[in-house]
Specification:
The chain has 212 residues and is mainly alpha-helical. It has one domain. The protein is 77% helix and 0% strand. The chain is built from ten helices and no strands. The chain has helices at residues 2-12, 16-25, 27-31, 34-53, 56-63, 66-76, 84-100, 114-140, 146-176, 184-206. Helix 4 packs antiparallel against helix 8 (114-140) and helix 6 crosses helix 8. The chain is globular and about 50 Å long. It starts with a helix and ends in a 6-residue tail after the last helix. The model has no long low-confidence stretch (mean pLDDT 83).
C-alpha cells in the first residue's frame, strides 16, 4: 500500500521514467535503504511474536522503550546533544504512557509467556531506535526525494517479506490464497499503517525522530 502511494506521488511530481533513470544511476545509494528495510521487517516480526506472549497493555507500555533507544541512537549516530533535562523529559514521558495504558481485556485462558514477550519487545525497541535514526540520516544526507526513499524501503520490504511468508506458510497460501481472511478491517489497518509511515517519514525529513 505504501509503495502504491509513493508511486502515485512520484508520477504526479517528478515523473515515473525520470525517477527510474535516477534510481538506475544511483544503484549503490539505493542499497543503503536495504538496511532499515530489513530491520523494520525483523522488528515487525518481533512485535507480532511479542503480542502472542503479552497482554495488550503490557505490550504497549514496554514498547515505549523505543523513546529512549531512539534518543540513545541519535546521540551515538547523529552526534546530537541531549541535555539532562531532555533525558528526564523522555523518561517522564515513558512513565506517563505507562500510567495511562488501560487494563488488558485479554482472555486469561490464553497462554502467556511474559519473559519471552518482554525480550521480543526490548529487541524490537532497540531495532526501532536504530532503524529510525539510520533512515533519518539517509533522508537528510541525500538529494534523493522522500518519496523515492520510501519507495525503495517499501520495495525491499515487499520482496523480502513475500519470500519469507511464502517459505513459512507456502502450503496455506497455495490452498487459500495470499489474501485469505483479509476483511475490510484488515485493509483499513494496512491503509492507516501505510499512511502513518509516510507521515512519520515527513516529520523525520523536516524535523527529527525526537519530535516524532
Amino acid at each position: 500500500m505504501k509503495m502504491l502511494i509513493c508511486v502515485l506521488v512520484i508520477h504526479f511530481t517528478d515523473g515515473i521514467w525520470s525517477s527510474v533513470s535516477y534510481l538506475r544511476a544511483n544503484m549503490l545509494d539505493s542499497v543503503k535503504t536495504c538496511i532499515p528495510a530489513l530491520i523494520y521487517l525483523v522488528q515487525n516480526r518481533l512485535l507480532v511474536s511479542a503480542l502472542e506472549c503479552l497482554d495488550a497493555a503490557t505490550f504497549q507500555v514496554a514498547y515505549q522503550l523505543k523513546l529512549l533507544t531512539t534518543a540513545l541512537f541519535s546521540v551515538l549516530i547523529l552526534r546530537k546533544s541531549i541535555s539532562l533535562m531532555q533525558w528526564f523529559a523522555l523518561s517522564l514521558l515513558f512513565i506517563g504512557v505507562s500510567f495511562v495504558e488501560p487494563p488488558s481485556q485479554r482472555n486469561s485462558s490464553e497462554p502467556l509467556n511474559p519473559t519471552l514477550g518482554l525480550v521480543y519487545v526490548v529487541c524490537a525497541a532497540i531495532l526501532s531506535g536504530f532503524a529510525c535514526i539510520y533512515f533519518e540520516l539517509l533522508l537528510k544526507n541525500s538529494t534523493k526525494s522522500l518519496w523515492l526513499r520510501n519507495l525503495e524501503l517499501a520495495s525491499v520490504s515487499l520482496i523480502v517479506g513475500l519470500i519469507a511468508q511464502t517459505y513459512a506458510e507456502g502450503e496455506s497460501i497455495r490452498k487459500h490464497g495470499f489474501f485469505y481472511a483479509f476483511d475490510w478491517l484488515v485493509w483499513l489497518i494496512i491503509l492507516l499503517h501505510s499512511a502513518g509511515g509516510l507521515i512519520v517519514a515527513l516529520v523525520v525529513k523536516y524535523a527529527n525522530n525526537m519530535l516524532k
